[in-house]
Amino acid sequence: MGSKSFVSIFLMASLCGAIFVTQGVAAQMQMQPTFPGLFPPGLPVDLIKCWSSLFSVEGCVLEISKSIFSGKFENVEAACCKVFSTLDANCWPHMFPLNPFFPPLLKDNCACIVPKAPTHN
After folding, report:
1. Distance (Å, rounded) from C-alpha 7 to C-alpha 25?
2. From CA 88, how far away is CA 90, in angstroms rounded?
3. What are the tens digits of pLDDT across the range 56-84?
4. Chain centroid to CA 1: how far?
């Protein structure tokens, strides 16, 4: 039980650290962000569009967050899988920079839940 809590704390600290570093780098570049503190303009991938599709399904972001930290994908519902499967593969490295293996794992799991999901290379 102690190792699970250590891993959880470590993951949360890493996530927070990555967020603060990203914000610090953005502030040093002195660019005017579209949303203060979030995404600087001119990114090749429109992160707002990527995330907004997940936010369009109620509870989808929460389900994905839970599966990231638990490693269990069975709680992700079909509607969320359908939206996640339609995301452009260029969004994934920018949406999940700390775990590049997560999107393919979730996509494989979603392929079992949502048949004939479109593939984006």
Report:
1. 27
2. 5
3. 889 888 988 888 888 887 878 889 988 88
4. 27
| DSSP line for 9-66 | HHHHHHHHHHHHHHHHHHHHTT---SSTTS--TT-SS-HHHHHHHHHTSTTHHHHHHH
Q: How far apart are CA 70 and CA 60, in angstroms?
A: 15
Give the 3-state secondary structure percentages of the chain, helix then strand then coil, rounded to 5.
Answer: 60, 0, 40
Handedness of CA 98, 103, 109, 113 (dihedral sign): positive
pTM score, whole prediction? 0.53
